[in-house]
Amino acid sequence: MGMLVDGKWQDVWYDTKETKGRFKRSQSQFRNWVTADGAVGPSGAGGFKAEAGRYHLYVSLACPWAHRTLIFRKLKKLEDTISVSVVDYLMVENGWEFKTRDGATGDDLFGLDYLYQLYLKADPTYSGRVTVPVLWDKQQNTIVSNESAEIIRMLNSAFDGITGSALDLYPPDLRHEIDALNAVIYDKVNNGVYKAGFATTQEAYEEAVTALFETLDMLEERLGISRYLLGDTATEADWRLFATLLRFDPVYVGHFKCNIRRIADYPNLSAYLRDLYQQPGIADTCNMLHIKNHYYQSHKTINPTGIVPVGPVVDLDAPHAREKMKRAA
Ligand SMILES: N[C@@H](CCC(=O)N[C@@H](CS)C(=O)NCC(=O)O)C(=O)O
């Protein structure tokens, strides 16, 4: 674990001294947008036109933020349009590494050893964290974006003229509700588990874990009324939640001490998790070996022995019966 400072790699853990033990996630710095015609998007510079074969995604199969982008690539039928490299599951003194084992592909574009070297190709004086996912432009040889929330929005619409996909996971009439739910779920759940797990004071941990379970309780109730968060059809909000729920019982309950309840203890949330998991193509994007090995072996401050627990047994292929649910009137 580490970061780049003025283009030099430094092996440092998260600093929580200034924040009374609270983990504060840094803002992603590459914020350009691929658009259908190459026009400038909501932020950054223009010039990134959607074209088949031009862009490459760097992901970790362990990382929930990267997982969203893989799910969108799958659902939006972008597998022939956007290529992918998968980093190794271990993230230790040199950060994310390229290796070829257990589904990690190595760096297909440049044969690099470490992801930080890719960041340096985009900006030789970069300072900041070296995170996945990264959307890379093979034409301009630079990073388009390293912000998953924005990459999935690009994948949702920019390439439709190429793929012919009509699926809209961020439909105009639901945008307001999706944004509102995303804001709560990001803070309390997606990032909430990290705030609990990386807290270095009891107070910071309890604050995060309490808010996390209050939000899961709220979502459990909501999913007793409708099949998905916003009705009969899954949207971006559901896929963003899915990536965290998938990792919850196998990792966050133990490793991040998010153990007031398990997802298995919530009838609606656990059936909903299986419902999403069983949708066509989704299981292919889920890799429990990367997920468990990454967290338990990379975060040595939390789990110094690096022992990976054998359980729990979670049967994601069990029936979910959620197709019977109807949206409340
Ligand atoms: N806001 C970013 C966060 C991505 C992120 O934090 N990824 C983690 C992996 S789960 C990472 O690469 N961490 C490396 C680090 O913080 O040094 C996004 O959603 O794309």
TrEMBL record:
The active site is at C63 (nucleophile), Y194 (proton donor/acceptor). Keywords: Transferase. Glutathione binds at W96, R129, V130, T131, V132, E147, S148. Signal peptide: none annotated. One of its GO terms (cellular component) is cytoplasm. GO terms for molecular function: glutathione transferase activity. The record marks Y252, Y295 as: Lowers pKa of active site Cys. It comes from the Bacteria. PROSITE patterns: GST_CTER (PS50405). Residues 171-302 form the GST C-terminal domain. This is Glutathione S-transferase family protein. It comes from Rhizobium deserti. The lineage of its organism: Bacteria, Pseudomonadati, Pseudomonadota, Alphaproteobacteria, Hyphomicrobiales.
